[in-house]
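#random but structural
TW: two for the price of one
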Amino acid sequence: MHAAKIRRRRPRLLKRSYLFGYGLLLPALIVIGLVILYPMADAIHMSFFETGLLQLGPPRYIGLDNYTALFQNAAFSTALQNTVIWTIVNLIAQVTLGTALAILLNEPLRGRALFRAVALIPWIVPSVAAALIWRYMYDPTSGLINSLLIRLGIIHANIVWLGETNTALNSVMLESIWKGTPFVMIIMLAALQAIPHELYEAGEIDGAGALQRFWYVVLPQVRASLALAAILTIVYTVNNFNAIWLMTQGGPLHSTDILFTLAYEIAFTQFDFGSAAALSVLLFVILLIIGSGYIFLVEREERSSTP
């Protein structure tokens, strides 16, 4: 009978502990709802209305017209194409360079701590300061890049790197790669340091070369970290508003516009909040798909590692 009383009390205690835990989470959930969920729901609602500062009268419900108008807009097509190029180039360059730097700095080099600290400088520099520094470096009259390339004999006249449609996007991408590569390096360096040294020794004993050791020893061990670095790089790159806006403001002729900067332009230069909300919802859906892919990869990795 005493054991039965204990069994009846246990669900009550568990229920109270759950309620206490949810109560501790409630303030944070309220803040998240006010800061994230409510603006998100408001943006989705606004995307179905014709609304803006220049509109007379209350917002007018227009259904999916904002979305169809976006797909018919040439600036949207250009921004979508730029976003794909911008993201793919940044992803490949940052993951490749970051992984290579991590492998190099994982070796027992003399002054390795100093090299690691220097490699982190681009990531430590605030994004606004980094964009402005690179903008001054690209200056067509007094910029460091033109001066250096002329002295090396690579070019013979100053180039307006950020003012020409065929060089502007590549120039901004160079700054973004410089800024984001150390973040990938940190993730991969942590993963490399977690690999047991015995695996390297086993590869050497089996006669595996450097490339074979990387492919058969290192890569399987850092696969999850590599996926994490790739997903975070994609999300950060798609949302990298500061670099483009501070260096080119999407110009010239929308040649450096991505979806994020185009949404800003539609909202705060054309004052068309309905179309800007529709574009923001599309961008949210894209990032949601990417985030879902990351969660799927993590769960699959956990299931495969569980005995």
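TW: number two ↓
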Amino acid sequence: MKTFYISNALNAIPGTGVNISCWVKGKRKTSHTLFLDIVDSTGTMQAVVHRGTLGAVPFAAATAIRIESAVSIAGTIAIGTQGALEINTASVEVIGGVVGHLSPSPRSDIDIFDPDLADHLLANRHLYLRNPKLMAVLKFRSILTSSVRQWFENHSFMEFDAPILTSLPLYDDGTAMGIDVRGRHAFLTQCVGYYLEAAVHAFERVYNMGPSFRGEESRSKRHLMEYHHIKAEIAFADFEDIISIVESLISYITTACALKTEPLLTTLGTSLCLDGLKIPFERITYQDALVHLENAGFAVRDGKGLGSLEEAELSTLFSGPFWVTGIPRAIEPFPYRIDPEQPTTCRVADLIASNGYGELLGVAEKIYTIDELDLRLAEKDKAGDHRYQWIREIHMNGCVPHVAFGMGVERLIRWLLNIPHVRDAIPFPRIFRRNIYP
């Protein structure tokens, strides 16, 4: 098992003997000297191979090593002519060779966000995962999800595993991804909210961070067929509670990423969006948003959802993320509570990211009485749909006031890193009208 890494070599004392398993990122050659740029998961450095040290035949074999080959380099640490540490190579062994040619080289300094390269990079994602910039995004993702779990743990939430296969769609069959399971129709989960609603009446504070699937086609920069959801539910809480909880979480994540990701941001050549630290976030009602949009020349209709262009326009009004509140009940799905003070709306809010990045998440105070649930089911033409019977049973057995939120991991990463598309915030993106490959 490998125990010595390039990061160790870069901190070693000159003259120290080393043996490193790594990959060849680049190479240069003079008549008697070969320079290998080697890389592993922890960094990169130069290995210098002298013909006089290896001998003519081994030196010729070393010069034939192709970019991306896996090698074992043995030698001693030395100070190079530019003052950086390098390896004076005593031997080079090829562990895994390269067949074929891929251009540009996966570890080269390419713009992984270049739309002209997108098709090629996506078709070869299994190899371009080695690119330092894509690695930086995915390392950032790991730090972010770790900070999410830490926040939940700090606030006494229990992680709850919910099924991916489900017998009912989130709200409508047309937006779900249906599959056949031994002759019976089922769905891939769009959201684990129903299952968390069952769990919250046992554990009171629960969360889940897992995959969700979208059947309704959308080719925007913030939609994928498969994405990861941060979902949580809290018992004995109301609308203002869930607003505060989400603001605390966003602020914590932003702070954690700011403290831990500076080298990754340097690799990406970007800066972290710190707007999530400006809590509490400002608010605008749905009706006030319509007035502003109409004055700005948008053809908007009361009772319709806001699109990405409308959200981008509204973001010019605020210096950070902002809440859209008072959303009409005609727009919102059935599980969400009708606002008793304004019965045409639900007690929900959408959090819109700053800088035109669109909706990040939604929060809701959920229905807890069977009468209101049945009313909302009827409004959405779902009365008598047997698939929702177990949801009704939750509401007939000690159901309590409870709240929830749901946020896409990839949307959060895209906003924090200022990157153009959610496809670059996930290892293997699944995009509409594109084959599932690799």
